[in-house]
Write a structure and sequence with these properties.
Length: about 130
């Protein structure tokens, strides 16, 4: 099962992970990607790192800027609902930008090469 950059828009992850677990077989895997909690902490003005809170992001690069409501949360609020709903964490990846990205946007590449933007997790049903 794959959830790519969707969970950031959901406040309560306990129910979501329980439903993912219910749907997966014993051999099943869950792969998710979310905004990295450190990036969110850096990007928002004076957040309380330990709180899960509603925030608004401004997306640019797709024409006119778009205001997008989302949630930022600490690492524990990402991992604990996953493990608590019957998953065993298998892998954690903090992706870095590709060489193609460097060619297209060298300045942003340099920034994202020094700090995480996304967090990817793979877990197995237990």
């Amino acid at each position: 099962m794959l959830s790519a950059l969707t969970l950031d828009y959901v406040r309560d992850w306990d129910a979501v992970f329980c439903e993912f677990r219910r749907l997966l077989t014993e051999e099943g895997r869950l792969v998710i990607s979310v905004a990295h909690p450190l990036a969110d902490y850096i990007d928002f003005d004076d957040p309380d790192y330990f709180e899960t809170e509603a925030v608004t992001m401004t997306w640019t690069g797709f024409g006119e800027p778009v205001e997008v409501p989302t949630y930022r949360r600490p690492l524990a609020a990402i991992l604990n609902p996953l493990v608590g709903s019957g998953f065993a964490l298998e892998r954690v990846v903090e992706p870095t930008p590709t060489e193609e990205f460097r060619e297209r946007d060298p300045e942003r590449y340099a920034e994202l090469s020094r700090r995480p933007s996304f967090l990817c997790l793979r877990a197995r049903a237990t």
